[in-house]
Amino acid sequence: MFPVLFVLHPVPKHGVWRWAIYYTDEPTMRNNPRSGCINAGLQPTKAAADDIGQQCLYSILSFAALLGRNVTVTALTYDFDLVPDIPDVPLQAHQGGANFVQMGV
Fold it and tell me: Torsion-angle region of residue 99: left (phi > 0), alpha (psi -120 to 50) or beta?
């Protein structure tokens, strides 16, 4: 069973930080950052990405606990863009409430 990966990295092209939650191993995620992605989003700062990403991670862990599953989390922070081929289009994340994020990508 893979650990859940909680990943933070900058997206310099858009001047934001990406948070992402994966269910795969790190080498697979690094080779194809879209494979195994459960949820991801963009925030203007690293701290904001960490905050919102952890809120989303908590929902996954809470759900797993309700199913009686113990989930291991590995936190990874990179100083480079894992997905540099994101097209030059506006990337949308709508903060619908304190604990709710709706993704447009």
Answer: alpha
